[in-house]
Amino acid sequence: MLVHAQQDSIYGILKAHGLPMGLLPKGITRFGFDDTGRFEVHLDQPCKTKFESEMHYDRNVSGTLSYGQIGELSGISAQELFLWFPVKGIRVDVPTSGLIYFDVGVVFKQFPLSLFESPRDCSAVQDSESDEAITENRHEEILRRNDK
């Protein structure tokens, strides 16, 4: 992927496209961006951070940038209540209304744009944590079956 010299960070590229820099967390190890607006970022490991709701970032995040929005987004999920929804797109109003909208498939979640002004620290999510929860649930299910 081609990276433009005047935009030497993914945060600068976001800003040049009318998007806040805090949409992506700190800890990006490398990124690519091409002339079609397609971008890809790589993190050391999956992580999560909290805005008004919790956000999960996969190790690889990709999408297509156009002014004021990201489409075809993959690698980001947002938590609502106890459920996780993949974020499929993000957009801001031009001119700005002070809000940012996350397309989570069934609805657009809106947040104050100010929450995303700068990149946030992102806590590591260990794959083993997910595996342990799944293993524990399976173990409980097996015990329930055996008790019947």
TrEMBL record:
<dbReference type="InterPro" id="IPR036758">
    <property type="entry name" value="At5g01610-like"/>
</dbReference>
<dbReference type="InterPro" id="IPR007493">
    <property type="entry name" value="DUF538"/>
</dbReference>
<feature type="compositionally biased region" description="Basic and acidic residues">
    <location>
        <begin position="135"/>
        <end position="148"/>
    </location>
</feature>
<feature type="region of interest" description="Disordered">
    <location>
        <begin position="126"/>
        <end position="148"/>
    </location>
</feature>
<protein>
    <recommendedName>
        <fullName>DUF538 domain-containing protein</fullName>
    </recommendedName>
</protein>
<dbReference type="Pfam" id="PF04398">
    <property type="entry name" value="DUF538"/>
</dbReference>
